[in-house]
C-alpha cells in the first residue's frame, strides 16, 4: 500500500474523529450561548399559539390569595399566600398547622415562582398527593387543585 | 412539541434524534478505526469488519433504544461520546494485538474487551431500568459505604487476592479476575453524596474557626471521615497510588461542592502536600516513582523507567498527526493496551487525536457538571458532580502520568484501556449520569383541573403532562 493511501486513510480518520467531536459540541452549544426560550414559556402560559391563548387570561383572572383546608380535622384553617413559602405540617412553625396523625412535622410547602404556585413535598412519611398522584418533585397547582396531605385536603382559593 | 411550562419557564428538549445522529458518527469513529487498523497493518480491510461493526452497532442501538424508552429526557451527548471512546479503544487494542502477534506472542485482548463491553452495556441497560429514580440510591448511603470498604478489602483475602506488578488490587475467582476498586469508586460516590446531603448545613455552619477555615464538629464529619480514611488506608496498604489519589481528590471535591467552603481546598492541598512528603520518605515505591519522574533517563539503563520513556518516545515520534495505524511501534511500551493506551494513540494518530480524546473526556465531565447544575435535588447534584470528577481525576492522573506532567501512577484510562472491571464500572457511571440528567431535564409534572377555562388544545397538553 502506497504512502499516499496510508496518509489519506490517516487524515480521513482524524477528520472523522474531529467531525464527531465538533458535532457533539454543536449539539450542546446552547450551554454556551444560551437556549432560545419559546415565546409561550417566557410569558408563563402553556405552549399555545396566540389565538387560543388570548381568551385565557381574561377568563381565569384567577389569582389565588389564600390556601384553605377543605377536608380533614382542621377544616377552615387558612393561610394567606405571600412571597414567603407556606409550610404545611404538624410542627409549631408551620403556617398551616394540622392535627392529623398522618401528617409529618414538616410535611410540604406551597411557594410561588413567577405567577405560578407549586407544592413541594419535604420528605414526608406518607407523601403529598396532587389529585390522585403522589408527587416526587415540585408540582404546579392551580386554583382549586386538591392537595392531599395525610387525611387533609388543601386548596388554593381566591 | 407540546411542552407544559415548568417552574423555571424553560423546558429541555429530548434530543433523542441528535443522540442517534451522534451515535452514527461515533460508530463511524469506532468501525473506521477498526478498518484503518486493518488497512494499515495488513493492507486490506479486515475480513470480520462486517460482523464486528454489526455487533458494535447492535450494542449501541440497543443502549439508545433503552434510553428512548427508559430515560427519554437524558443527555444526548454522553452515550455517543462514550461509544466513540470505547470504539476507538477497541481498535487500538486490536492494533496492539496484531503487533504482539507479529512479535510472536499472540493475545486476544480486543476480543476480550469486546466481551467486556457487551457486559458493560448490559449493566448499563440494567442500571437504567432498575434505577428509575436516582434518589432511591440515597437510601443505600451506609450500605454502599460498607460495600465499598468490603470490596476494597477483598484483594487482601489470602484465597482470592493476587499481587500483580506490586499492587494487591486484584481478585481471582476461577478463570475470572476483577479489580473491585473500580466498583468501589461508584459506591463511595453514592455513600459520600448520601451522607453529605443531610449533613452539609451542619458541616458548613456549626463548628469552630481555625486559621480562616471553619472546622466542622466531629460528630458531623466523623462518620464519613472514618469511612474515607479506611478506604484510603486500604489503598495505600495495597500500594495502589493512582486510586488513593483518585479517592482523596474525589472526597475533597464533593466536600467542597456540598459545603461551598473554599477552605476545604486549602486544607486538602496542605494535607496532600503533607501526605506526599510522608509517603516519599516512608515508602520506597513512592520515592522510586518520584525519582523516575524527575530524572527519567537516569533509570533508563536499569530498565526502571523503560515504560514511561518509551511512551514519551512514541508520543514524540507520532508528532502532530501521528505515524498512521500500522506504521508506529506501540508494542515497544509494556502494557500499551491498558495504562499506556494514550501513548499508543499519540504515536499512531498524533497529537490531533490525543486532543480529540481529551476533548471527549472534557465533554463527559462538562455534561456531568451541567447535569449537576440543572438537577433539582441536592443528592443528584452531588452524585453527578462526584461521578464527573471521578472521570476527570482519573483521566488527569493517567494522562498526566503518561505524558510526564505528574509522577506515574497506575490507573486505567476510562473506556479506552483494556480492563473489564474499569469498563463495566464506567458504563454504570454513565448510566447513573443519564438517569440523573433525565430527572433533571424532565419537565415538572403539571396537574391542573380547571378544564372549563382551557381550550381543547390546552387540555391535550395537560393529558400529556399527567402521563409523564
UniProtKB/TrEMBL annotation, chain A:
Record-annotated membrane-spanning stretches: 6-28
Pfam families referenced in this protein's UniProt entry, alphabetically: FHA (PF00498)
Keyword GTP-binding: no
Keywords of the record: Membrane, Phosphoprotein, Transmembrane, Transmembrane helix
PROSITE patterns hit by this protein: FHA_DOMAIN
Domain FHA residues, every copy: 86-135
Protein name: FHA domain-containing protein
Source organism: Nocardioides agri
From TrEMBL, chain B:
PANTHER family on file: CELL CYCLE PROTEIN (PTHR30474), PEPTIDOGLYCAN GLYCOSYLTRANSFERASE RODA (PTHR30474:SF3)
GO function terms (MF aspect): lipid-linked peptidoglycan transporter activity; peptidoglycan glycosyltransferase activity
Any Gene Ontology biological process: regulation of cell shape
Keyword Ribosomal protein: no
Pathway info: Cell wall biogenesis; peptidoglycan biosynthesis
Topology of this chain in the membrane: Multi-pass membrane protein
Lyase among keywords: no
Cellular localization per UniProt: Membrane
Name under which the protein is recorded: peptidoglycan glycosyltransferase
Catalytic reactions of this protein: [GlcNAc-(1->4)-Mur2Ac(oyl-L-Ala-gamma-D-Glu-L-Lys-D-Ala-D-Ala)](n)-di-trans,octa-cis-undecaprenyl diphosphate + beta-D-GlcNAc-(1->4)-Mur2Ac(oyl-L-Ala-gamma-D-Glu-L-Lys-D-Ala-D-Ala)-di-trans,octa-cis-undecaprenyl diphosphate = [GlcNAc-(1->4)-Mur2Ac(oyl-L-Ala-gamma-D-Glu-L-Lys-D-Ala-D-Ala)](n+1)-di-trans,octa-cis-undecaprenyl diphosphate + di-trans,octa-cis-undecaprenyl diphosphate + H(+)
Transmembrane parts of this sequence: 20-37, 49-70, 77-94, 114-131, 143-165, 177-197, 218-235, 241-257, 264-283, 340-361, 382-409, 415-434
Organism: Nocardioides agri
Main subcellular localisation: membrane
EC top class named in words: transferase
